[in-house]
């Protein structure tokens, strides 16, 4: 019975994290799109991909931390674990690994997967909406990494 209750609590915690991740993703995605379209004029160059992805991820990470502390990791023990300097550094280190995964997967998704699988005839799709489809897939992958990494390294149950 206690194991069932613990499993239910973990599932509910992950669902809260998914909602928080969704809000953080909207900030991330909006920043990514604004940088790509406004700052880089829609460019698909390497600098546009890297800078836009990083800018979105950093703002999304800040939102994720704040909301995670308010909504996800709510127990007294988790609050204490998440507010010391070491935990904040680890939280952001997990985010940094997530950023590296995001950068790598976004670049590979745009430059390797979309172009090689769809061919040159779909180049307009890659320049148009393909980069945003890749961003959605990458965000889902990194969401799982971020939750698991933070749960293990910052908010561990001991």
Question: Could you characterize what this model shows?
Answer:
This protein starts with a helix and ends in a 5-residue tail after the last helix. It is 87% helix and 0% strand. The protein is elongated. It has helices spanning 2-39, 46-72, 76-82, 85-118, 123-153. Helix 1 packs antiparallel against helix 2 (46-72) and helix 4 (85-118) packs antiparallel against helix 5. It is mainly alpha-helical and 158 residues long.
Instruction: Give the rounded overall mean pLDDT.
Output: 84
The count of helical stretches stands at 5
Q: Can you tell me the residue ranges where pLDDT is under 50 for at least 5 consecutive residues?
A: none
User: How many strands appear in the DSSP assignment?
Assistant: 0
Separation, N- and C-terminal Cα atoms: 20 Å
The helix/strand series, from N terminus to C terminus, equals HHHHH
Determine Rg (CA atoms, Å): 17 Å
Give the proportion of residues in helices. over 70%
Query: How many domains?
Result: 1
Question: Which structural category do the helix and sheet elements fall into?
Answer: mainly alpha
**Approximate shape:** elongated
Which sheet architecture does the biggest sheet show? none
Strand proportion, as a percent range, falls in under 5%
């Amino acid at each position: 019975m206690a194991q069932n209750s613990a499993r239910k609590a973990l599932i509910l915690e992950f669902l809260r994290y998914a909602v928080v991740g969704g809000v953080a993703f909207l900030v991330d995605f909006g920043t990514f799109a604004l940088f790509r379209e406004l700052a880089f004029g829609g460019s698909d160059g390497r600098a546009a991909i890297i800078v836009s992805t990083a800018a979105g991820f950093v703002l999304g990470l800040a939102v994720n931390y704040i909301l995670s502390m308010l909504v996800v990791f709510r127990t007294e023990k988790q609050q204490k674990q998440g507010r010391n300097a070491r935990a904040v550094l680890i939280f952001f280190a997990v985010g940094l690994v997530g950023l590296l995964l995001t950068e790598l997967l976004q670049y590979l998704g745009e430059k390797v997967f979309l172009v090689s699988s769809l061919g040159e005839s779909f180049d307009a799709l890659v320049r148009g909406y393909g980069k945003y489809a890749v961003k959605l897939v990458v965000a889902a992958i990194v969401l799982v990494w971020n939750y698991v990494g933070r749960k293990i390294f910052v908010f561990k149950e001991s």
